[in-house]
Write a structure and sequence with these properties.
This protein is mainly α and about 40 residues long. It has one domain (about 5-40). It is built from 2 helices and no strands. It has helices at about 5-30, 35-40. Keywords: Membrane, Transmembrane, Transmembrane helix.
């Protein structure tokens, strides 16, 4: 384990993961909150 560039890479990975999770959560909420989708599920 090197404490050099590994830290920066981890920060980038964490940022990318957080952004992906945020987009996925917003997409899921928008999709799930759409009446047409709810009616299709019912």
């Amino acid at each position: 384990m090197s404490n050099g560039n590994g830290n920066g890479r981890w920060a980038t990975v964490a940022q990318f993961a957080a952004a992906t999770a945020a987009v996925a959560a917003l997409w899921f909420l928008a999709d799930w909150g759409t009446p047409s989708v709810l009616r299709w599920m019912l």
